[in-house]
Amino acid sequence: MASTSGKRCTLSIEQKLRILEALKSKTADDVAKQFNIGYSTVKKIRQNEEEIRKIVMNNGNLSRKRKRESPNEEIGEALIVWFHQMRAQNATINGPLMMEKAKQLAITLEHQDFEPSYGWLERLKSRHNIKFIKISDEQAAADHAGAEYWINNVLPGVIEGYDLNDAFNADETGLFYKAAPSGTLAVSGTHPTGGKTPKARLTVLLLCNSTGTEKKAYVIGKFKNPRCFKKARPPLPYYSSANAWMTNWIWSDILQNFDQVLGNRKILLFADNASCHKINETLKNIKIIFMPPNTTSLIQPLDQGIIRTVKVHYRTQVMRKMLQAVNYGTSIINYAKSIDILKALHMLKRSWFLVSPTTIQNCFRKADFLVNDNTSDLDRMQEVLDVSEFGEAIQEEDFKAFVDCDKEAECFGNLTDGEICDSVKLNRQGKIDLEEEDEEEVGIVDKPMPGVSHKDVLMHLSMVRKYLEENFTDYNSYYDVEDMIEKNALINRTQRKITDFFK
């Protein structure tokens, strides 16, 4: 007879599966006796057979016992659907990325008060048997055979007849532009962010040729008219989309503009086969070559160190400015919050400028786009992280983590119907939110600076010259700036009568 003990028996999914298998050839009473459980328990397991087998089919954790319903269950279900969708694209997903996505889904599902915790995420992962693997393991899972075949048998025929200057690569990367180091900095004993990386993000499209002589950068944000752009011209081409992602419309617009600039020059543009890179327009001068799926980590030049070098330079600038701010009494957190999109674009443009042609050539060599020679050690071609200028303010490992904090940030994805509609409206309408950040991201935001007159800028330029005279001996960069400003001042006064200058 089945057990009638008052002690509650909690069975795992695996045990319930064995019970279901036993029920195929035995009665419920016999199964209850075999497993020493109550008849009602066996009956309930039989009633829930579909749900139990669904958990197994969805790669659920077989050792899990009780299913606890949560008021936020639908958020978890939506997150799992998104997770499997992204993994189907071979995207690498980590914990912080899943938590950030959970927040977004919660808002869509009208659970505005939901705040995911690591405990919540771990329980969700356990229920669905999700385990993260290291990036190196992820790359090892890439299609090495497909990459090797493409490099040896496809690429030579594609590039035949093209000059090295006419072979380009384009790729996106996510940039958490407000991020600060998450470790402890030796600056007045402060903890910059308490381990939390600000998720205000941009998508950056980098484009360069194999010789490193031509470089372009394009930036995508969430908002079409960030208020920091008022009375300012962004230093890089700026686009907007609902998620700050690359879209077919943005990609098409960038390539059509680039195609016109080329005149009659014919080039190759290598890109990954993301759905947002597929366009219907015919390009006169650009031939797009899509690399095989699951091979870009192995054969895409920008992924061999170019993108990371840009981020090394960007984070170096952030560190310098952050330490200066701390010296003048600003907290690290407040400095990070004060970085607006305009400031980020200036630092990004400078960072891209600092990437040398040699670095770019070496990355194309590492991807086997160029023939290897003895001019460089490809195993050590990436620019070395140099944190010596920061003294003891940050350790090398902490700076590496800082550089890589947005390495897995997504740059495109499968948009929902609502997101597609939002994207269309964003590109076609002028009535949009002029705020730069979402409410939860707003911290210290600089007020738009008033316009600067030529008289004021020339006066301050003289102060800069005085500073240089006291500290440096090389004035060439100063002369270039002075010449540019003075020429612009004259151009803006050409419509005035020459006699006005003598009144």
UniProtKB/TrEMBL annotation:
Pfam families, A to Z: DDE_1 (PF03184), HTH_Tnp_Tc5 (PF03221)
Residue intervals of the HTH CENPB-type domain: 63-134
Record key words, sorted: DNA-binding
TM segment ranges: none
Family annotation (InterPro entries): CenT-Element_Derived (IPR050863), DDE_SF_endonuclease_dom (IPR004875), Homeodomain-like_sf (IPR009057), HTH_CenpB_DNA-bd_dom (IPR006600)
Keyword field contains 4Fe-4S: no
Record SMART domains: CENPB
Gene Ontology molecular functions: DNA binding
GO cellular component assignments: nucleus
Protein name (record): HTH CENPB-type domain-containing protein
UniProt lineage: Eukaryota, Metazoa, Spiralia, Gnathifera, Rotifera
